[in-house]
Amino acid sequence: MTPESIPLSARFQIGIAFLLIVAAWIWHGKRSSARLPPGPNPLPIIGNIGLPKDTLSSFKNWADQYGDIMTLRIMGKNILILNSKAAADELLEKRSSSTYARPVYTMAHEIVGTKHFPSQTSDPATHKTYRRMLAMSLSPRASEAYRPTQMLEIRKAVMDMLNEADNYVAAIQRAVASIALQIAYGYDINKEDDGLIKKIQRMMHIIVEVQIPGRFLVDVIPALKYLPTWIPGMKFKRDGELWAAQIREVEQIPFDRVKRDMAAGTAKPSLVSTLLEQSSAVDEEKWIKMVAGALYNAGAETTSAAIQNFLAAIVMFPDVQKKAQRELDAVIGRDRPPTIEDRAHLPYCSAVVHETLRWQPVTPGAIPHVFVHDEEFMGYRIPKGTVTLANVWAMSRNATEYPDPEIFKPERFLEADKHGAENVERFRVGFGFGRRVCPGIALAEASLFAAVVSILWTCNISPPSSGSSAKPQEIEMRFGNTLRIHRPDPFPIHVNPRFLGAVELIRDTIRD
Ligand code: HEM
């Protein structure tokens, strides 16, 4: 049939119907976005297709251009970006009951099954149960019990760095994974075969991959999840189901072992054993298993990235190393290595921790939330279902709050009079907001502090010398420019004992 063969009246009706559909589409588009704040110009229909390659620089420039809030429109979805701490405090903290939920990712949540993770669930009752367990086991008070484990593993990493500077990233990752596993399950990875560690590392890689926006078509067309796995193009579903099984296995193996050891009376104290002892309901077991998994899912990559960012700062700003070492010599001396208990007496080293988290925030876009109710804010109407992201990167580079933001300057967290007590405490926004604020802050900051003081008390860190000359190499430090876990590309370092006897003293504490 050619267009000419269609009767004129029918052609007229089709034309009217087409015009009505276009008008409805334009009206709907206007209605759904007219009340949201402006943002970078989207393309017609598809909006801002994806994030630009230089995401972080764009997020900073957009914040300068659009102010407190702006909208990105990606593949037909509005994303409200909160550029200022004030906007994030108001919407994510004060109105947390409207913004506590997480957006749904079909691949990650439904096919791979991560929607049950404490960091991903949007079910209010489940989330409340998780938060109760997390608060019980990770509060600042509860976290004090983990300090000996943190010190021991970080000191082992320092020894590894001294022995093999080229492998410092692996040493840090191993220490942080070991801390998470010992706290969660009493699992000592030095004594066990490392099969489980390899599986966990694979699982963490999968979890990161499946959450990359736009990586899987099924996140754009969710109905694809209903197609059978045998038809062409459905590899993502077959992979997803396999990954889901691998994740379940990694959660189950160490959990079952704790239960077995508890039954035999040989279990080492751990988060799982404590929660199992305290829980009265059998169906709580499945939540406890997930909470234990969160320690390495949410805690390991983030903490090791923060330690790598600290090392980058030390190499780029050598004066900071000298100042911290002067404080360590004055307060601790050289007869014993520092511990986490010394934190209150080491204000400069504590400020290095906070400045590390500000200078290169580990999660520059935090983790997205979604509105579960309509909200009015700054004259705009934000509809239920809108995804929102805190622009932590721009907040960390707010020159009014943090003058010369690209400079690593721990002193800014010591200047109480200038910025007020809240700022002195920490770069708080780096850990998120409201009901979803990171429950691992105490643990993360203690691990980072342990790394700062142990590395700087024992070693001098410098760029390696170039060739045969004693001159240090020029290192071009490169950081990721995406919203994913933010850390430097591996860079070479030289690790030297700082004084005679330092290594022996550290080694003795490990042996004890
Ligand atoms: C430097 C290290 C860390 C950073 C920068 C960090 C940052 C964050 C951020 C930005 C969020 C999202 C908050 C929000 O949605 O508003 C979060 C959530 C979370 N973090 Fe951390 N985190 C770190 C370490 C840890 C550690 C060590 C643990 C566990 C021991 C942990 C466990 C969690 C969990 C379970 C959530 C999900 C909370 C929820 O959705 O209710 N994190 N973290």
From TrEMBL:
| Keyword vocabulary terms for this entry | Heme, Iron, Membrane, Metal-binding, Monooxygenase, Oxidoreductase, Transmembrane, Transmembrane helix
Q: Which CDD domains match?
A: CYP64-like (cd11065)
Q: Which InterPro entries match?
A: Cyt_P450, Cyt_P450_CS, Cyt_P450_E_grp-I, Cyt_P450_sf, Cytochrome_P450_fung
Q: Extract the Pfam families matched here.
A: p450
Q: In which pathway does it act?
A: Secondary metabolite biosynthesis
Q: Which residues bind heme?
A: 438
- Name the coiled-coil region(s): none
What are the recorded GO MF terms, alphabetically?
heme binding; iron ion binding; monooxygenase activity; oxidoreductase activity, acting on paired donors, with incorporation or reduction of molecular oxygen
Tell me where on the tree of life, at the top rank, the source sits.
Eukaryota
Q: Which cofactor does it need?
A: heme
Q: Which family does it belong to?
A: Belongs to the cytochrome P450 family.
Name of this protein: Cytochrome P450
